[in-house]
Amino acid sequence: MRNNRRFFLKISSLLGMGFFFKPGIKSYAKEIFSDKAANFVADGLVNEDKPIIGTYGNWASGLLEKSLPSHSFRRKEWKNLAKWKSQATERLKDRIAAPDLGEVPTFTIDKQYNYDGLHIEEISWQLPTGGRSEGILLKPQGATGKLPGILAFHDHGGWKYFGKRKITKTGSEQHPMMVDHQKFYYGGLAWANEVAKRGYVVFVPDAFPFASRRVRLMDVPERLRQGLTDEQPDLPENARAYNNWAKGQADTMAKSLFSAGTTWPGVFFAEDQKALDILCSREDVDADRIGCGGLSGGGMRTVFMGGLDPRIKCAICVGFMTSWKDMVLHKSFTHTWMAFVPVLPKELDFPEILGLRVPLPTMVINSNEDGLYTLDEMKEADRILGEVYEKAGAKDKYKCSFFPGGHQFDKKMQIAAFDWFDQWLKT
Question: Given 3.50.30.20, 1.10.10.10, 3.40.50.1820, 3.40.50.1110, which CATH number is that of 107-425?
Fold first, then answer.
């Protein structure tokens, strides 16, 4: 029994790092876990027919199924689109309790150069808390005039030491862990680079608390550091040690944020909105043609940013779409605290957060074997968003696609996403 529990914890840890049904993932998993664990994950996980919290699951799910959420546009009493959006948006803002981070930050260009047909800027800015935030901006080399912009969100992936580097490539030399990361999640591509080449100014900010926004070991009590330091953090062994340490601090971070009267999605949104402010303030960006998107944790950030900020004219959520019911019954254990907002499920189902942007163009990209969610509830989320857009008379502005494979944003998926950006941001 003890060995079974240890095996389950290993699998849960791997799931939390975002490894789901990837071709070739077996050898990658073996770096951390036993052959048995690697085979289990590589071969896929079958959805259980029982709730993950036992008999309490059906009871808890029943709390959501008694009626449609109070602020769901699908309810018959919501007939005026503008009135619904106004009231539902205010309710969502109240629930996530995003902190006020002040005016548009002043940013500095710390370094700029050209690589692979792109002009790249490494920029930084100061928020009211933490060290300087960093981001990478990419646009076609030699481009002139105002271009449409894209706020590109990096994933979670279980690696908080890395952020912007997960989806960018700024030179021929690349961190070996990022080579592996892009191979397994993105078909070996830096997707922010790929979409920039299509004629966009793409901005990739570090999210809270990743990379430049991460918690520094020197800033926490020594008894919590587990003997680790901030010295030579870019060494693979040190980066892995930090990632493992940060994973164990997620509960503490969530509890502290709740105790401060905010939420993790609220902090995400507040910091991402400052990055959007920076992008829109640039002279080389057409602020009326802005899109956003990302995989996994980046998809989750897209849901909130796309739902709450009307400056986002086109939103693409990849690998993060399901219902709250799916979390209750099956999949809460595959996600961190970063996705959850207390009380909100009574008022809006998860896809309806993104639906607040109706009638603005929206795309959702799912994978049929994505272990973060059940296929049934991914399809249910598609049905819900479809109903919202149809009721608003904007059926042509919503598209949902299902691709084969696991948790990923590979080349075929990227082409579909970039074509959608082109359709709505270049016309």
Answer: 3.40.50.1820
The Cα 236–Cα 224 span in angstroms is: 21
Given a contact cutoff of 8 angstroms between Cβ atoms, the answer to whether 220 and 228 are in contact is: no
**CB 238, CB 232: distance < 8 Å:** yes
CA 207, CA 236: separation in Å to the nearest integer?
A: 21
Residue type at position 140: P
Position 165: which residue type?
A: R
Give CA–CA dist 15/242, Å, rounded: 18
Higher confidence at residue 169 or residue 49?
A: 169
Residue 59: count other Cβ atoms within 10 Å of its Cβ. 12
- Token digits for 401? 């696609």
Q: What is the pLDDT of residue 49?
A: 75
Q: Quickly state the pLDDT bin for 19 (edges 50, 70, 90).
A: very low
Q: What is the phi/psi pair of residue 314, to 5°?
A: -150, 125
Task: Look at residues 149, 147, 180 and name the one whose alpha carbon lies nearest to residue 166.
Answer: 180
Q: How confident is the model at residue 47 (pLDDT cuts 50, 70, 90)?
A: low
Which burial class, exposed, middle or buried, applies to 22 when counting CB atoms under 10 A from its CB (0-12, 13-18, 19+)?
buried
CA Rg value for the chain: 21
What DSSP designation does 172 have?
S
pLDDT at 48: 60
Cα separation of 311 and 138, whole Å?
20
Average pLDDT for the chain: 89
For the chain, the structural domain boundaries read 107-425
In terms of Cα–Cα distance, which of 368, 366, 367, 400 is closest to 382? 400
Residue type, 119: H
Residue for token pair 């894209």: 150
Helix (H, G, I), strand (E, B) or coil at 144: coil
- Of the candidates 232, 105, 256, 110, the one whose C-alpha atom is nearest the C-alpha of residue 161 is 232
pLDDT for 396-425, tens place per residue? 999 999 999 999 999 999 999 999 999 999
CA quadruple 335, 340, 345, 349: dihedral sign: negative
* pLDDT (0 to 100) of residue 152: 98
Is residue 113 within a helix (H) or strand (E), and if so which, with residue range? strand 107-115
pLDDT, tens digit, for every residue of 116-172?
999 999 999 999 999 999 999 999 999 999 999 999 999 999 889 999 999 999 999
> Residue 121 forms beta bridges with which residues?
112, 137
CA dist., res. 20 & res. 40, Å (int): 10
